[in-house]
Amino acid sequence: MTKASRQYKSGKEEPFNPEELDWMDYSGILDMEVEFVSDLGETELTVGEILKLEKGSIVDLKKPAGESVESYVNGRILGKGEVMVYEKNLAIRINEVLDSSAVLYHLSKERL
Prior knowledge:
Blueprint: E1 5-7, E2 13-15, E3 36-39, H1 47-51, E4 69-73, E5 76-86, E6 89-97, H2 100-111
C-alpha cells in the first residue's frame, strides 16, 4: 500500500507528515457521512452479452477467489480486506488499513 502524500501547485508530491495534524480539531468531521466502496473486481462485456444476462447468469470478475479486495472512502484507498458472509449478508473483513492520520488528513481537506 502506498504512503499518503500531498501534491503541491508545482506538481511536486511531498510525503504526508502525520505531525501536521496535531493542531487540528477532528470533532467537526467525526460525524461526517462518507462513501465506502469495496472493489470486488471488474470485467468488460459487450452490449450483446449484457442483454443476454438473466437471473442466475454468472459474470466472471477476473479475480481469483480468496484474493484481497481494496476498500475506498470517498474515492481514496482505505485498506484491503476479504469478502465474507456475516449474518446472511455479504461483508468485507478489513485486514490492512491506511494510517488513520492520513485518512483524517484527506477527509478534513475534502470538508474545506
